Amino acid sequence: MQPLELFAVDGLLSDEEHEIAATVRRFVDDALKPNVADWFENATLPRELAKEFGALGVLGMHLDGYGCAGTNAVCYGLACLELEAGDSGFRSFVSVQGSLAMFSIHRYGSEEQKQEWLPRLASGEAIGCFGLTEPDFGSNPGGMRTYARRDGNDWVLHGTKMWITNGSLADVATIWARTDDGVRGFLVPTGTPGFTATTISRKLSLRASVTAELVLDGVRVPASAQLPGARGLSAPLSCLNEARFGIVFGALGAARDCLETALDYATTRVQFDRPIGGFQLTQQKLADLTLELGKGYLLALHLGRLKDAGALRPEQVSVGKLNNVREAIAIARECRTILGGSGITLDYPVLRHANNLESVLTYEGTSEMHTLVIGQALTGLPAFRG
Fold this sequence. Notes:
alpha+beta, Butyryl-CoA Dehydrogenase, subunit A, domain 2, 10 helices, 11 strands
């Protein structure tokens, strides 16, 4: 029996949701898992995967029109789960492309911007990134130093962005900057003079993902590059909330892959003349891990139904992100103990997932920040503001 079968979750999904999850899982099993250990070890993600993700239909899949599939939120979440069962880097690519770069254009862009970029991003012909985080301002994006000033009919941007997924692969970057009229968003083609993207190396996590530092040194863009609907910091934060929702599901994919791997290992690895899965301590681990995976799945599905009903609140996304990532990394670490020494190699996915989840625990809001968001919702008192 597989862990989620104990929760009878299949009966909670529609036929479309089943089919999308199964389709993405087949793609991950056939096209990604056989190669991911090498990509992780070599710290690379092939650019041509963008078109494969586009052909699969997962890029901006929860958006309507412009070549996007227009699925419900639960379908998108299940796709994220299956992608992250392969590697967090795959889900990160799709999240950044669809929930950050594409969502920012879809929600806040002009019709011309949507027509220019969204079909190409949906097909994977073009790659997008999202520049909000800065070297000195991660959890506090309101302190950003990147600024844009008007110069005639143009905007001129100066600043630095850090930890930008897809940054050195991207064809277009959504850049958030201060202006004399508050925070605004700009679509910056990455070939624009003064724009530099430098890949961050020597990572111990998310190695099958491209992360970059962006430098904007007098980058000049026309007035038409501004996202007309984006006014204030609430605009980029709404994009982050979309990406966080995908993580609520995605982290469970990594956890499920770890648990399925550990379960298979425990029933085939023999010590003291019996499979180690027959020992009480191992069974206690497997039972406890299954409980946390199942509870996280039910929480994610509930939040997905709320999102599809238009009733999901930001603090509820924080509940899902905090719980599911925290439990996923605990599952990965405990599964590693079941595999013993074999668990530290790339022959098994468990420690790779655990390493990746260290990044997932931090990005799109650290666990500490989501804790304080929940605390504020409970008490009405903002602990992280003066």
